[in-house]
Protein: Cupredoxin domain-containing protein
Organism: Undibacter mobilis
Amino acid sequence: MRHLFAFTALAALLVAAPLTAKAADEFTLTIKDHKFSPAELKVPANKRVTITVINSDPTPEEFESESLKVEKIIAGNAKATVRIGPLKPGRYGFFGEFHEDTAKGVVIAE
């Protein structure tokens, strides 16, 4: 019985480890009222990361950044995934092209 418990615990650790590592490189941005939240997103430098952009507004928005080399239209009440990096340490601005006056933010790689 003790071996069965140890085997079950080990199996649970092996399954959970890749999920934990994957989650560390995934981030979420939300668009609401034509603003990004959080407006500053800290990501690890020198690593490729995934950002899920959730558009909670009923109208489309475009997640765009020349420095991040990304341009993605997200329909209203929908989400999209973008992959960026690896980035050198620094600040990388982004904006929503359809509401550029309010939809602004920065990715901080550190």
Remarks:
- The chain has a mean pLDDT of 87.
- The helical segments are 2-24.
